[in-house]
């Protein structure tokens, strides 16, 4: 942070007193953020919302949890979900709804799970998604689930794998476990039934379908533009003499490889859709 040692020590001490950071249990020379610190990092600058709006946020989240549970294309399912933080208090206005989740692989068979994850990555490639590095593409099947569960709402997701012991040590309520909504957990969920769930899902699915159509249209436009640029370059090469073509051999090879890869992805997509 480019500050002197003493101000840095004072800052660390202040963050520790406020409960935002703590000493690593197995490494006294290192620090880590606490659940409160993680919540602060992920908190939005949005205005406080009414409890009724927070209720809708939580119901929408649980509807998406059920959707992930029931739809076969998701690579990971929610094993457990808990709500904690200000939502469990009596305040009439709240910030984001804090929810901790633990995911599990959709299939116990490792080979089946690997195939499902690779199909997910291919769909991302075909949609035009660009990954900054190999690890981002490798972990995309799990990240995709987390992004869908959040769906740009006022849900602040926490990982129970890392923060579980701290969350479980404080006030919390399990709202999803053993493949089902815990209807007895909160008064809000006591009336949860298929009709309520279906109404929420219809709203989510309509929005999801519209977003998917927009992404497909955008990807098709990008693909068409890329193809036109490649074909224009190839036409330029056709007009060159053999001597000049030799100078651009590597570039021509790359362009032809791009065309081949595009056709292969399209065939794979059609095969998956018919399979």
Give the helices and strands, then pairings.
Elements: H1 5-17, E1 21-24, E2 27-33, H2 35-42, E3 49-50, H3 51-70, E4 76-84, E5 93-94, E6 97-105, H4 110-126, H5 134-138, H6 140-150, E7 155-159, H7 160-169, E8 172-177, E9 180-181, H8 194-238, H9 242-247, H10 249-274
Parallel strand pairs: 6-7
Antiparallel strand pairs: 1-2, 3-5, 4-6, 4-8, 8-9
Helix pairs in contact: 3-6, 3-8, 4-10
Structure commentary:
This protein is of the alpha+beta class. It folds into three domains: 5-33, no CATH class; 49-192; 220-274. It is 59% helix and 17% strand. It contains ten helices and nine strands. The protein has helices spanning 5-17, 35-42, 51-70, 110-126, 134-138, 140-150, 160-169, 194-238, 242-247, 249-274; strands at residues 21-24, 27-33, 49-50, 76-84, 93-94, 97-105, 155-159, 172-177, 180-181. Strands 7-6-4-8-9 form a five-stranded mixed sheet, sandwiched between helices. The chain has a two-stranded antiparallel ribbon with strand order 1-2. The protein has a two-stranded antiparallel ribbon with strand order 3-5. α3 (51-70) runs antiparallel to α6, α3 (51-70) crosses α8 (194-238) and α4 crosses α10. The radius of gyration is 25 Å and the shape is globular. The N and C termini lie far apart (53 Å).
Outline:
This protein has 275 residues and is α+β, with helices and mostly antiparallel strands.
């Amino acid at each position: 942070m480019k500050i002197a040692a003493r101000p840095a020590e004072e800052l660390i001490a202040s963050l520790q007193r406020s409960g935002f950071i703590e000493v690593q249990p197995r490494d006294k020379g290192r620090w880590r953020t606490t659940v409160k610190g993680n919540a602060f990092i992920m908190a939005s600058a949005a205005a406080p919302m009414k409890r009724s709006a927070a209720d809708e946020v939580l119901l929408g989240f649980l509807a998406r949890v059920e959707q992930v549970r029931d739809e076969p294309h998701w690579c990971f399912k929610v094993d457990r979900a808990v709500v904690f933080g200000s939502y469990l208090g009596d305040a009439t206005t709240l910030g984001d709804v804090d929810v901790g989740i633990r995911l599990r692989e959709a299939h116990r068979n490792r080979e089946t799970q690997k195939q499902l994850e690779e199909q997910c990555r291919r769909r991302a490639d075909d949609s035009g998604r660009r990954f900054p590095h190999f690890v981002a593409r490798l972990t995309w099947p799990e990240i995709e689930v987390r992004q869908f569960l959040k769906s740009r709402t006022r849900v602040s997701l926490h990982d129970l794998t890392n923060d579980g012991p701290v969350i479980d040590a404080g006030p919390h309520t399990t709202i999803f476990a053993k493949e089902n909504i815990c209807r007895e957990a909160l008064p809000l969920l006591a009336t949860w039934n298929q009709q309520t769930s279906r109404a929420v899902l219809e709203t989510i699915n309509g929005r999801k379908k519209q977003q998917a159509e927009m992404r497909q249209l955008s990807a098709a436009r990008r693909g068409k533009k890329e193809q036109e640029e490649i074909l224009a370059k190839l036409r330029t090469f056709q007009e060159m003499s053999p001597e000049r073509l030799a100078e651009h051999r590597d570039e021509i090879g790359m362009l032809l490889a791009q065309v081949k890869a595009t056709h292969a992805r399209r065939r794979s997509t059609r095969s998956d859709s018919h399979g």
